[in-house]
Amino acid sequence: MTAVEDNAIKPDLRDPAVVMRLFRLGSFHQSRLSFMRILTRRMKREAWRFDCPVFDISDNGVGQAVYSAHGPERSYSLVAFAHDLPADQRSDRVIATAWDCTFALFDGVPTAADIARLSQNVPLQEAGRVTGSELSVSRANRSVRLWEHVVSRLAAGSQPDLQQIEAVGYLMRTTAVYGSGKLGAADRGMIAGRAEFAAPFQVEMLSVFLTRAFVRDLVQHMADRRARAAGGQAARLGPLIARRLGVGNSTGLGMAPFLLNHPVLFSNWVAAREIALQRVRGVQTARAAEIATFHDLYARSRISVAKWHSDHPAQRERLAALQADIDRITARLSDVGLAVVQPWDDLYQWGAATLSVEGQEWLVSLLLEPYGDLVDDLADTLPADNTATFRIAGAMTVACLRDVLWDI
């Protein structure tokens, strides 16, 4: 266990008046308590298996595929439909009616009849309907800038240009990932009791995780077919480049009204992060392995931040401030080091007085990294059971409901 002494002075939690400000909340960075990382830790811990029982895609990228994830008790499958979408129909608007790919996350492994049923509904998205056997519905469009570049370069036997990969970062981006009863899919209450879905948004994260695998296979498939038609052989997408490719997200605007309607849930998320920070700040002495982990991830994250870019003036200003903060942290680590009492609290307190808000929150996420044994259990505190407070009174008459709303 980490060296936290019983008689140590426990740092106070940060003041909500400081934390709960939009500018600071918008400066939070991914951490050990991020939803996708909770999912991938579970996959590794439980040795989940993955396979692709169906991949029926034509030379021009049209067809269907199934990607299955097998956990210790249950299996889940992404059912993917690929379409030949004309460029003039490609739109990131939520009101679009056609997409390059559409998906459903199926509870189990689908039969041919399940796939046939989904093929008549999932490509329609809002105009279609799914059932309680589906846990999420989503859609995605190809990157206009990157998709053709990657296909053509691989088909010609070479790797994509790394600068173009880093400028975009994804081959497809979602324009919606729907769950919790949307379009007839299973309601959250139907699956909340499953350990793998207890934490928030695990269904959606699993869908995106499998989507990423499908997209990489699809671009390789289309490059292979193009090369074969030309009498050649396509290159395999290099693993280092493949690791740089994520799944883009259009806007995430739906999260704003969701958070307004789920204040307890949002409070749990922020509280878990704050308690994690408090625990790490209370560590009396950093062990050599913990210091080494911090320095390693600090160096890697510093390289990553150096590659971030934006065309938006306000975001460019924030990135410049973060770069300057990282230089300050580097100098601080060189001058003072971590061989002090409560080193993480010392570093945090210095950062709170010295760095921009963006730099402070970047540092907070890094402080948590060496201490999975202290903070990972807080993932269990993220969910919120709203059933008691938000149960619908089915016996209420319309007249009574009208009176209640009128009083409000």
Describe the protein.
The chain has helices at residues 16-19, 22-25, 35-45, 112-119, 147-155, 162-168, 188-191, 202-229, 239-244, 255-261, 263-281, 288-306, 313-335, 343-354, 357-368, 372-375, 387-390, 398-407; strands spanning 49-57, 63-70, 75-82, 101-107, 134-142, 170-179, 246-249. The termini are far apart. It has 18 helices and seven strands. The protein folds into two domains: 16-28 and 262-381, no CATH class; 35-253, no CATH class. A seven-stranded mixed sheet has the order 1-2-3-4-5-6-7. Strand 2 and strand 3 (75-82) form a beta hairpin. The relative contact order is 0.13. The protein is of the alpha+beta class.
Characterize this entry briefly.
By secondary structure, the protein is of the alpha+beta class. The chain contains 18 helices and 7 strands.
Q: What is the element layout, followed by pairings?
A:
Layout (H helix, E strand, L loop, with lengths): L15 H4 L2 H4 L9 H11 L3 E9 L5 E8 L4 E8 L18 E7 L4 H8 L14 E9 L4 H9 L6 H7 L1 E10 L8 H4 L10 H28 L9 H6 L1 E4 L5 H7 L1 H19 L6 H19 L6 H23 L7 H12 L2 H12 L3 H4 L11 H4 L7 H10 L1
Parallel strand pairs: 6-7
Antiparallel strand pairs: 1-2, 2-3, 3-4, 4-5, 5-6
